[in-house]
Write a structure and sequence with these properties.
By secondary structure, the chain is mainly α. The chain is 79% helix and 0% strand. The protein contains 4 helices and no strands.
Length: 84
Amino acid sequence: MSPGIAMVLTNLGVALANLGHSEEAIRSFDEALAIDPKDPLTWHNKGLALANLGRDEEAMDCFEKYQDLAGEQHSQNISQRPFR
């Protein structure tokens, strides 16, 4: 599958999360990450969805993966933002 499909799945996950459907959003993020595991924003958004469900340890793992992939500069710019 192409990275474009991963972006569509990430956007679907964001839309689902914004509608309060965190479990479905996580599934969509997981599908996107299966295609493009190096997309930092997908990891960030998955972390937010997990945190919304109180799955804090899993969320922290996602945020750490995000920071590893995005680098310090990018992570400072996005750390306080909601789903994107």
